[in-house]
Every structure is written in C-alpha cells, then in structure tokens.
Amino acid sequence: MSEHKEKHFQQSAIVKDVVIGMADGLTVPFALAAGLSGAVASNGIIITAGIAEICAGSIAMGLGGYLAGRTEIEHYDSELKREYREVKEFYEKEKEEVREIFAEYGLSEQSQHLIVDEMAKDEDKWVKFMMRYELGLEKPNAKRARNSALNIGVAYVVGGIIPLTAYYFTDVPFSGLIASAIITVVCLFIFGYFKNKLTGQDPLQGALRTTAIGIIAAAAAFFIARLVSH
Amino acid sequence: MSEHKEKHFQQSAIVKDVVIGMADGLTVPFALAAGLSGAVASNGIIITAGIAEICAGSIAMGLGGYLAGRTEIEHYDSELKREYREVKEFYEKEKEEVREIFAEYGLSEQSQHLIVDEMAKDEDKWVKFMMRYELGLEKPNAKRARNSALNIGVAYVVGGIIPLTAYYFTDVPFSGLIASAIITVVCLFIFGYFKNKLTGQDPLQGALRTTAIGIIAAAAAFFIARLVSH
User: Fold this and answer.
1) A41 touches chain B (CB under 8 A)
2) Could you tell me if B12 lies within 8 Å of chain A, comparing CB atoms?
3) Cβ of A59 and B217 within 8 Å?
C-alpha cells in the first residue's frame, strides 16, 4: 500500500472509531442523566451516576472492542492454518471451490479451469484468494485493534462529559435537564451532520437521525425512571 | 438459498445479535449499579438509575443499530447505481480494474483478459462481481436490519435486569453489590463460555475474557463514583 493510501486508510479508521464511541457517548449518559433528573433531588447524584456510566460504558466498549479484535485475529490465524492444510490434503476439492466462485459470475468451464490451474501454482496466493473470496476474511491488523479500542473509549468519555457539564453548572435537576438537553441536541445535530458528510451520506438526514435517537432515549429514560421512583 | 441453509443463517444471525446485546447489557448496568453502591445510600436510587440506563442503552443500541442498517442499505443502493453507470461510461477502465484484482493473485495477462472479456458479457454479473470484490459490499437485508435491532435491544434489557434484581431483594447497597457481583460474574462466565463455544472459539478463554471486562468495568466505576461523591 502506498504511503498516501495508508494514511488515508488510517484517517478513515480513526473517524470510524470516533463515530462509534461518540454516538453512544453523547446518547447514553445524556439519556441516563435526563432520566434521573425526573427521579432524584440532587445534581450530585446525577453527576455521580453519569460519571459511573461513562466509566463503565467506555471500558465495556473499548476493552470489549479490543478483546473482540484479538478474537478476530485468532480466528483468522486458525482459518489460515486450516486453509493451508486443505489445499494440500483436498487439492482437487479446493480447486473445485475456486471454480464454483467463478461459475457464479458466468465464466465458461474452460476459463474456470485455466484460472484455477494458474492460481494453484502459487500456494500462498491461492490460500490468500480463498481466505478473501471463499471465507470473506481479511487479515486483521493487531496494532489497529489496540488503537481502535483506545479511540472508541476516549470518544465515549468525551461524548459523555458534554451532557453532564450542564448538571455541574446548575443548582437543581430540572435546570440541569434543560441546559443538558439544549447542549446535547446541538452537539448530536452537528455530530450527525459531519458523521454523514465524512462518509458521503446525506448530512441533514444524519443530523436528524442522530438527534432523534438521543431525544427518544432521553424521553424514554425520563418517563421510566419517574414511573419506577414513584 | 436452500431452506436448511437459510434457517442456519438466521439462527447464527440471532445468536450474533444476542451476543452483542447481552454482552453490553450484563456489563454496563452491572458496573453502573456497582459504582453507585459505593456512593449513594439507598437501593431505590440504584434501581432507578439502572433501569434508566437499561432504557437508554437498549434504545441507543437497538435504534442506533436499526438506523445504521438503513444507512448501509442506502449506501449499497447508491454504490450499485454508480457501478452500473461506471461499467457503461468507463467500460475499459472498469475492465482494467477487474484485471488488477486477478493480477494480484498471480494470474497471467492472458488469463486476465480472458476472464474480463467473458465477465463483461453479462452486465448484472459483472456489476455484482465489482460490488463484492472491488468494493467489498454485500447486499444488506432490510428485514434483517429491523429484526437485528429488536434482538439486540431485547438482549440488552434481559442482560441488564439480571444484575439489578440483587438490589431489589436486598436492603442496603452493600448487600446488593455483593449479591449482584456474585450473580453477574456467574452469568458473565456462562455467557462468555457459550458465546465462544457457539462461534467455534476456546470456551474457557471466552468465559474469562467476558468476566474480566465486567469486573474491571464495575471496579473502575465503583472507585470513580466514590471519588466523585466524596
């Protein structure tokens, strides 16, 4: 991969991580705090609960994502070993599988045989082809799994702190809720807009959808918490 | 797809959804409640916060997942239209792109030309090939996006209620924390075990990793909530 392409790939990977972490970070702590604001008497409890949630959520998403990445690497390595064994032990059957892939795209039998005979000459390339096109597996990047976990976790923390600040700078839960809702809705709108813009989707639709999820989650949490606490 | 294969596919899709929802559902509300148990005086507040979190988290994951699925469908459709346009407008360039894919796997120039000339005869199959192998996109299933959102959301609720029951059946936060930790660690262990067993990974490793994430998230939330509230 050229240096430019590599850089482009890394940038879009970071954007993807930040989008994943921040979407949940802006939504869940905001909705939890909104829910509690209708059920408890002090901003201190809301802030404590919000910070505990940010801590729990960022670890679950970050560490969970990291370990899922590790599992993916182990899965790839074990499938790779199996594929190398299979092209040795079931040489003809594996060639047949390559032919089937090309038959699906309308190639003649003659071409299928030609392709597979050429491909089978280089075992490494053959296995690489089977991993990608038969099993749909791409080699996972170990360094990427670690960085990704960190990016997602940090984005969750940053996203989660925004709605909580409102409760810090106000005296009672109701004022906190109003300020938090205004700040967070603005942030969700901007975030959803740029999220879609960066991925080539309709920005306004992204803004509206992201904001709607936050508002629905907060409203549901508010009414359920009120119901439970009374 | 045969009926048997279709059924197999649906089953593994549901398992995947339940794993995603329940992993977070067991972890985050458990850790939040554990965090609050070191900072607030009544089980009522812990239960209220826990239920508000379950509500917020399940909506963020479920509805967020549903809308992400919708976005994926729109993305696929727009790329499909573009690919149909490109094979018409940039016929030779698109053929060159197919050749490059096969050059990567060591096929001779002669074979590359043969493949691409045959493939270009059927526009639908050619475009299908480009979507899958050049862009790495598979046709997303609209019904699947809706079902998946529901499965994930419900699994989150079920997972989240388990650690909270302990606070309902005890009188003070400290007893609730002990009971909740025992119940949840057992559930995380069993869940992690079967999660890995079903996906063909090492079950014991799955059990230990899943339990570790829960314990680390709960311990971190506990100490941070204590620090903030004092």
Assistant:
1) no
2) no
3) yes
Q: How many CB pairs under 8 A join A and B?
A: 204
DSSP letter for each residue of B93-112:
HHHHHHHHHHHHTT--HHHH
In the block, which residue shows the tokens 């079903």?
B198
pLDDT at position B10: 57
Q: Does A74 touch chain B (CB under 8 A)?
A: yes
Using a CB–CB cutoff of 8 Å, tell me whether B81 touches chain A: no
Q: Determine the longest span between alpha carbons in chain B, in angstroms.
A: 79
Cβ separation B107–A126 shorter than 8 A: no
The percentage of chain A sitting over the pLDDT mark of 70, rounded to a whole number, equals: 95
Euclidean distance between CA atoms A166 and B192, whole angstroms: 38
Where chain A has pLDDT below 70, the residues are: 1-11
Q: How far is CA B227 from CA A51, A55, A164, B39, B50, in A?
A: 10, 13, 16, 9, 20
For residue range B2-12, what is the model confidence (pLDDT) as tens digits?
Answer: 444 555 555 67
Using one digit for the tens of pLDDT, what is the confidence trace for B182-195? Answer: 999 999 999 999 98
